[in-house]
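Notes continue from the previous slide.

Worked example: a multi-chain complex. Inputs as given:
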Amino acid sequence: MQPFTQHRGLVVPLDRSNVDTDAIIPKQFLKAITRTGYGPFLFDAWRYDDAGGFPGQDCSIRPLNMDFVLNQPRYQGGSVLLARENFGCGSSREHAAWALVDAGFRVIIAESFGEIFHGNAVKNGLLPITLDGETVDALFRACETHPGYTLEVDLSGQQVVPPVGGSVVFEVEPDVRDRLLHGLDDIGLTLEHSDSIRAFEHRRAERFPWLYR
Amino acid sequence: MGRTLYDKLWDTHVVRENPDGTVLLYIDRHLIHEVTSPQAFDGLRAANRLPWRLDSILAVPDHNVPTINRERILDPVSRNQLEALDTNVTAYGLDHFPLHDRRQGIVHIIGPEQGFTQPGITIVCGDSHTATHGALAALGFGIGTSDVEHVLATQTLVMRKSRNFRITVDGQLSPGVTAKDVILAIIGRIGTAGATGYTVEYAGEAIRTLSIEGRMTLCNMSIEAGARAGLVAVDEKTIDYLRGRPYSPSGADWEQAVRYWTTLVSDRDAVFDRELTLHADEIAPQVSWGTSPEMVVPVNERVPDPATEVDPVRRQSMEQALRYMDLTPGTAVTDIPLDKVFIGSCTNARIEDLRDAAAIVRGRHVSPVIRQALVVPGSGLVRAQAESEGLDRVFRDAGFEWREPGCSMCLGMNPDQLGPGERCASTSNRNFEGRQGAGGRTHLASPAMVAAAAVHGHFVDVRQFGNNV
């Protein structure tokens, strides 16, 4: 996994609450068996002005919905997504995180996140930052009034730094911070405790033999 | 201080506590389907790792499978994904109910049906509706593909404990009001993020009165309130349900298991971080009107008006939802015209759901305005049971299509889909934009409500659906 230390990027304001993972990557793209290639289909139903794409399609020839924020010229190349409450609610599809990363996003700022999506994002080097409603509101206004509005995100210092004005401190769980900063392989870390897992399993099999066939 | 049921389930699975506050949690059982597993198996192979414990895994295809003409999967992308599951199952020698096996079905239906889900275990699946299994006092929750790989490789997950939330439903549900209405009413009350960060235990007289299948419907939609897991404590019904199932313990093991299972209740002096109490007699049959499961009203009410909403963000969400759903504020729910009906999904495709729907449909006919009416049993065994009771005839005679088991029109990954603009009364769990097909419009309700809607071409209050409605 790509480590995350600092990032400066253009902010894309997606002014919606309860953005579900079906909206982030619709179901037809879940038929692929790879981890990459989902970027062109990110927010497919909102992004394209057609009846919906299909896996493997060449999206360069599809009509764009120019009202959708991701298609507006001023937000091209954005890498920090700004949203409202409960971003990534719904299904457990990790394809949602894969699509965001594939489309170039490194940070998502929202008032809150769906729990499974939050975990999936972290495992893919995508930093979810939770900020209070007032701060998120202020960021939406700043995007609106300042074309080319960027934010710098410093994970080790746990700060979001706007171009002008004071920086905003954010909370992040220590394990999440560590994993992202060092791009750690979860499975490799866990397997260092193989002996503990085996010992636990042995005790469990004695106590609950019917669970082990 | 006493412990909650969730505390007990958690504590017995902690392998080790990490210095950063996370724990390594042991996973007893792992359900696998075709959509969220191929990348996990690829990851295992790339790192030259093997599954930790083969007998913890049960695999079944469900999301992509057609529910008619299954001999040949026409969509090459779906076929490729189904074949990837077969390849992985064969390569590692996993337990598997393939498409032609009569035990095949939706992953959350077959787990309990087989007794693979048992009280006191941790059970995971790369699917958010794994909360279903909490109905049997198992700690079940959905995981992403990276975690599917983590469980395959280590039999554990790195987790942080959730907080405890008890939702009590006192009193008795009125006739015609079901588990589906209870969970929709709860989500309507607390919102889709209302239980984020919590494990919910459902308690109270109305919950104890529910059958195990009703409790599955309830726990299934916990994720729609933001909770990864929902639970109901063990009682006699739990034990009766598990007796004699293929994966259930037997002989001396059974006695030992039952002794343990009966301890899986929250202690009297357990303290919950949050409590909510609802009264059963205040719950009416529910229908969703918007594009989030929290956008739900009783069937005898009207589509709400965003103008009355003071919060600007919520108002905007409501306006977006009404535009997508093509609804006008103030429209009576019973006046919304429907195009299709769907009875199925991991929420409502068990035998009791089909009996409920058939009881409404018997001797009646699907309204001519309904273009398609689907009944999709949750598993081959549910289908066989229904057929042995003659329910298939009841549905077919009424004009329903009687299909083979699978996720079907709940999520449109297979040929069963809504067309753009089509409006569907559905027993599934999500009314998100495009969920049942691009541009499709979903109204969530119970099996009885959807069956009644099929007959009338619009929603009706099943409480008034006596012999002459």
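Summary box: Residues 17 and 23 of chain B are 4 Å apart (CA to CA). The two ends of chain B are 53 Å apart (CA to CA).
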